[in-house]
Amino acid sequence: MANDAATSQPGGEGMPGPAIILVEPQLGENIGMAARAMANFGLSELRLVAPRDGWPNPAAEAAAVGATALLDRARLFATAREAVADLNYVLATSARARGQMKRVLAPDIAIADLEVRTGAGQGVGILFGRERTGLENDDISLCDALVTFPVDPALASLNLAQAVLLVGYEWTRARRGTSLLPFGPNASTPPASRGALLGLFEHLEAELEAAAFYPPDKKPTMSRNMRDMFLRMSPTEQDVRTWRGAIRALAEMRHRRKA
Q1: Which residue did the predictor score with more confidence, 158 or 49?
Q2: Residue 80 sits in a domain of what CATH number?
Q3: pLDDT above 60 (res 245)
């Protein structure tokens, strides 16, 4: 039976993240470090299937380092079947297919698909196996596909928390793309509006023309190229304000020198 005291919490950037499901984890320390890895990347729904040393576990709390609230919300299940019963799509982490006809996906492809599914309102989860033996065939049979990390075949097994960390990293990449800008109320200023950018372009072009910057008959081409240069930078509202202030200061200096 699930522990009904906890409920699913939202994941990073306001979107529910995949449930991280640890099947029969053996060491409390590994559970705590996995929770910390989840918190690093905004994943907040932890499900535990029959942890060997029981639950709650003081060793897990000691290893969580700042993620103890996530442990407090963890949901406890007796079997993997119960842990995935409410989900629409489930991945299993494994270094091999175990003879089952499952799709095997690279992490970036697998997690990007989860991001799309969560955006569509589906419940999704990822199974992680026991520290010593990984997931059993019966566990994998519950899942839609396998996700496998590109590790050295000579040592294919990962520490439990390391595997969770890699999933969290791919989740953040799927949510943010290539941008490393933060999300939420502490984010950088929003991208500049088209009107603000056009105002900047007109201001800059007017001052450059006044300074005789453009060679004869070259202004249209140079202006378009310069606009493209700014657009490639994806300026924010603050960037536009800074550039407008800089252009204004240079123009005022030129006027003072003429006076």
Answers
A1: 49
A2: 3.40.1280.10
A3: yes
Helix H segments across the chain? 28-40, 58-64, 68-73, 80-84, 107-119, 137-140, 160-176, 194-210, 219-232, 237-258
Residue 186 resides in a domain? no
93 and 167: one domain? yes
The CA-to-CA distance between both ends of the chain, in Å, stands at 84
Give the number of domains in the chain: 2
Domain holding 29, by residue range, is 12-176
Cα distances (Å, whole numbers) of residue 39 to 12, 20, 42, 98, 129: 9, 11, 5, 31, 20
Q: Are strands 89-93 and 103-105 parallel, antiparallel or unpaired?
A: unpaired
Note whether 169 and 230 are same-domain residues: no
Q: Which of 82-86, 91-95, 138-142 has the highest mean pLDDT?
A: 82-86
2-6, 22-26, 134-138: which is most confident = 22-26
Note whether residue 189 is domain-resident. no
Q: In the structure, what pLDDT confidence band is assigned to residue 224 with cuts at 50, 70 and 90?
A: very high
Same domain, 119 and 199: no
In a domain, 234, yes or no: yes
pTM (predicted TM-score):
0.67
Retrieve residue 191's tokens. 């991208």
- Alpha-carbon distance of 65 to 77, in angstroms, equals 24
Q: How confident is the model at residue 178 (pLDDT cuts 50, 70, 90)?
A: low
In this structure, what DSSP letter does residue 16 have? P
Sign of the four-CA dihedral 48, 54, 57, 63 = negative
Residues 157 and 205 in one domain: no
Phi, psi of 96 (to 5 degrees): -150, 160
CA 22 to chain centre: 20
Residues 98 and 208 in one domain: no
